[in-house]
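Late entry, evening session. Most of the bench is empty. Finally got around to the prediction I had been postponing all week. Sequence below, unchanged from the version circulated by S.P.
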Amino acid sequence: MRLHVGLFSGAVLACLVAILAAQAKAQTQSPAADPQALLQALNSVRAQGCRGEPIAAGALRTDPRLSAAAARTAAGAELAEALKATGYRSPRTTLIALNGYAGAKAIAQGAARYSCQTVMDADFKEMGFYRKGSQVWIILAIPFLPPLDADIDQIEARVLQLVNEARSDARMCGSEALAAAQPVRLNAKLRSASAAHAKDMARYSYFSHTGRDGFHVSERAGRAGYDWRAIGENIASGQMNADLAVQGWLISPSHCANLMTARYTEMGLAFAVNPQSDGGVYWVQVFGQPK
């Protein structure tokens, strides 16, 4: 399109400039600039499956903090740094960076082609994105949904169930073959010892069997009034529920061996939550054999 400025009045010229600016803006923007459009497109892909793999992935929802983090990654920040800066906490996130796709549907399909398994991961519940020209940054995340203090009785009972199920069968803990063991029962004093250490780790954001006072599980159990013949402790951080905590212990050779130790007859379990800490959620499990 050619323009001869001298042939138009100022008003007409201003009108033409406005039209051209609107056309240029329309050409550089697409429905993908709307978070809802991309959200719907991604949820459509997740509902249909990709590469012939129908999976009940569930619908995503948007979180503006993830979009802000995506903008920071586009500017060169590391993903962890960007999430911390926007105040978004997550047990697991992933970043998908794409280039050359126009429109929400094309971007969603491109993301699925880039990483079908990631897009279809049912654990991801939230998303955010940022677009600059032909480039798009998409963050998928598992939201931080820690266990509730009010549910401690049910959670401890669930851990007890999982522990006794594990102890009922012989198993390999790393390279060590361990025989089945008798079930353990709950003990309130061992829960108290567990809770003291979990709360301290959460409050002061550290992860260790050694407390800040230099004491270990043997001293903590004694402080709680537990007179023990044998004592042991498993700790974990970051898991959002009891099942994940126990799974983590079972795949760790030393924690698995602790859990399978035949001489233990009692157990206590506690957790503590601090979103500002490194681990977010801290789990402590103490096993004992009383005198």
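Two things to note before I forget:
Residues 10-28 form the longest helix (19 residues).
The mean pLDDT is 88.
Will write this up properly tomorrow.
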